[in-house]
Amino acid sequence: MTRTKHIPLRDMRLGTPARIRARRTYHPLARPKPSTKGGLVVAKLSHEQEREHAKACQLIDLPRDLTDEERAFVLDNWQASCTARSASDRAYFTPAGLARDMAVHVGGDRILDLAAGIGRLAFHCRDLRARPPRPGPELVCIERNPAYVRVGRRVLPEARWICADITAIPRMRDTLGEFDCVISNPPYGAIPRAVDATSGYRGRRFEYHAIALAAMVARRGVFLVPQVAVPFRYSGMPRIESGTGDAEYRKFAAATGIELEMNCGIDTTQYRQDWQGIASQVEIVHADFTERSVATARPEAAQERHGQLALSSH
Ligand SMILES: C[S@@+](CC[C@H](N)C(=O)[O-])C[C@H]1O[C@@H](n2cnc3c(N)ncnc32)[C@H](O)[C@@H]1O
To answer: How big is the chain by its Cα radius of gyration, in Å?
Structure first.
């Protein structure tokens, strides 16, 4: 066993951090107040955020495994906005408390984190059902930005990290296998995609494509999605408002047979101040992919079912 030297976080000596400017698309709820430069909206990090980010970078570069405390520090303080592509990637990492709450809905032996960022959601699924000597679940994280994957491998080395576009999932199904549960805070909205998810949904909301892709490899899923994209409003409301969703949701549900259901009563607005620089109005939803109508579920599942019906009718 190799001996590791643990450097207390407070004792780490830092050089003067380079001035870090984060380029971001403006969001109505963005914090701190952005300024405009050369036509780009620039959200500056505070000096403290710069210092903590630099400290997180140092930890990532250490030539040894990180302690649990160090991993949590990196997750809390490594700023995606310091990378060139954070805005185009829609890299808004989930706050710790919200990720912990989402994990309440997750279960099973094989868990997939889709569009995993640096692994915040999977990190809180590590210990689910772990009762030594029984290990925790097998974790797989898919993320397309190699810079995030590098950080993710340091904070969550027990997961298998795959640097790939999630739209490649239909081609990766054989190697990925079947998952008990997908967990995801995917990018939202009208984002250019390599290909449409082969699910029947052809609309503009990337979050629905991510959910449809999840349904190809998992039995159920837990997702963080914009409130406008779900058929109820709970977070920040005095009472639950349920309905049938907007036209885009109905299009998605009709095309895929997937219904997004209310969580166990988690109001996400309690974590509003904890997002790094942005705070969207979001809801936690879960979906049972085994309950979809066969016609809209995976094509081979429909074929199997037809085969069974044909056999049973003889
Ligand atoms: C909203 S962030 C959430 C990250 C992480 N799931 C979390 O909750 O902290 C979305 C992530 O999706 C990644 N991403 C965006 N488009 C992707 C794609 N087509 N395939 C894989 N990852 C993608 C981004 O790089 C970013 O890390």
So the answer is: 21
Per DSSP, what are the bridge partners of residue 283? Answer: 225
CB-ligand 1 contact for 145 (6 Å cutoff): yes
pLDDT in tens, 105-136: 999 999 999 999 999 999 999 977 666 777 78
pTM (2 d.p.): 0.82
Residue pair 223/259 in contact by the 8 Å Cβ criterion: no
Q: Which of 266, 147, 142, 248 is nearest to 201 (CA)?
A: 248
Please give the Cα distance from 295 to 255 (Å, whole number).
10
Beta bridge partners of 21: 44
pLDDT bin (cut points 50, 70, 90) of residue 306 is very low
- Which is the closest atom of ligand 1 to the Cα of 148? 27
Confirm or reject: Cβ of 117 under 6 Å from ligand 1.
yes
Helices and strands: H and E segment counts in the chain = 10, 12
The answer to whether the CB of 165 is under 6 A from ligand 1 is: yes
The predicted-structure confidence for 37-59, as pLDDT tens digits, reads as follows: 333 334 578 899 999 999 999 99
The rounded distance, in Å, linking the Cα atoms of 65 and 5 is 10
**CA 36 from centre of chain:** 29
Sign for the pseudo-dihedral over CA of 192, 197, 198, 203? negative
